[in-house]
TrEMBL record:
GO terms for biological process: L-histidine biosynthetic process. It comes from the Bacteria. This is Histidinol phosphatase-like enzyme (Inositol monophosphatase family). Keywords: Hydrolase, Magnesium, Metal-binding. GO terms for molecular function: metal ion binding; phosphatase activity. Belongs to the inositol monophosphatase superfamily. It holds the Pfam family Inositol_P.
Length: 270
C-alpha cells in the first residue's frame, strides 16, 4: 500500500472516531424523526454527523470533493471525493436495531477506493482499500469461496426498494441460493467482506450507501458491480450485486440478467 492510501485510511478512521462519539450520544437521546421528499427518514443526528465530517474534510483536504446524503455534492469533478452516509440504516437507528452505522468512502477517479464502516452499537469497524487490504476491528479479513448459488448465503437490505422487474429477478436468485437474510443494512456488506456471507443483492441504493462497502469488499478479495457487471459510479442509483467469490458473482449476474423482465417501474410494498 502506498503512503497516500495509508494516509487517507488513517484519516477515514479518524472521521469514524468522530462519528462514533456523536452517534453513541444520539443513540441514548430522544430521536426526533423527519421524513424527506423520498419518504426516507432523517434525524438531527444524521445532519450533525455529516456536518462534523464535512468540516474536518474541508479543513484537511480543501481540494477534495464531498458527496453526502444530507448536504449534497461539492466539487464532484475532483480526483478524490469523500462519500458520506452519516447514519446508514436510519430506520434501524430509530427502532434501536443495532445494525446502523456511519459509512465513509473515498472515490478516486469516480470509483470506490477507500472505505470505513463503523457500527457503535456492536463495536465493529471495517476498513479497506480496494484491491489492497481489509480489516475488521484491526484484524485482516478475506471473503470466502463458495461452491455455487445452491450453497450461498445471500443478504438483501429491503425488497421494498425494488421495482417490479427487479423484484422478479431477486425472486429467481432467492430461489436458487441456500438461504436469504433481510434487513441488516450495510452491516451485511461487512459480514460478506469477513467471509460470513457469500452474496448480496440490493436495489435503490445511492453512491453513499455502497462506495465505502465496495472498497472494503474489494480489499477483502470480493467484487461489487451493478447488475450488468459494470463498475459502480457516483451517478444515479443502480441495482447492486456483491459477492466474495468471482465465480459466484458471475453466476448471480447471469441469473439476474436472465430473470429481469420488462415490467412496471412502480415501486411496490410487499
Amino acid at each position: 500500500m502506498d503512503a497516500f492510501t495509508a494516509e487517507l485510511l488513517r484519516f477515514a478512521e479518524h472521521l469514524a472516531d468522530e462519528s462514533r462519539v456523536l452517534l453513541e450520544g444520539a443513540a441514548t437521546a430522544r430521536v426526533n424523526v423527519e421524513s424527506k421528499a423520498d419518504n426516507s427518514f432523517v434525524t438531527e443526528a444524521d445532519r450533525a454527523i455529516e456536518a462534523r465530517l464535512r468540516g474536518l474534510i474541508e479543513r484537511t483536504y480543501p481540494q477534495h470533493g464531498i458527496l453526502g446524503e444530507e448536504y449534497g455534492p461539492h466539487n464532484l469533478e475532483a480526483e478524490i471525493v469523500w462519500v458520506l452516509d452519516p447514519i446508514d440504516g436510519t430506520a434501524p437507528f430509530i427502532a434501536g436495531i443495532p445494525v446502523y452505522g456511519t459509512l465513509i468512502g473515498v472515490s478516486r477517479f469516480g470509483r470506490p477506493w477507500i472505505g470505513a464502516l463503523d457500527y457503535p452499537a456492536t463495536g465493529d469497524r471495517w476498513l479497506g482499500a480496494a484491491g489492497a487490504s481489509a480489516s475488521r476491528n484491526g484484524v485482516a479479513i478475506r471473503t470466502r469461496p463458495c461452491a455455487g448459488l445452491g450453497a450461498a448465503l445471500m443478504t438483501c437490505s429491503n425488497p421494498d426498494f425494488f421495482h417490479d422487474d427487479e423484484y422478479a429477478a431477486l425472486t429467481q436468485v432467492r430461489n436458487a441460493v441456500r438461504y436469504t437474510l433481510y434487513g441488516a443494512s450495510s452491516f451485511a456488506y461487512g459480514l460478506l467482506a469477513s467471509g460470513r456471507t457469500d452474496l448480496a443483492v440490493d436495489c435503490g441504493l445511492k453512491a453513499y450507501d455502497v462506495f465505502a462497502p465496495a472498497a472494503v469488499i474489494s480489499g477483502a478479495g470480493g467484487i461489487v458491480t451493478d447488475w450488468s457487471g459494470a463498475d459502480i459510479t457516483l451517478g444515479a442509483p443502480v441495482p447492486i450485486v456483491a459477492a466474495g467469490d468471482a465465480a459466484l458473482h458471475a453466476q448471480a449476474l447471469e441469473l439476474l440478467r436472465a430473470s429481469q423482465t420488462a415490467g412496471s417501474s412502480r415501486r411496490i410494498k410487499r
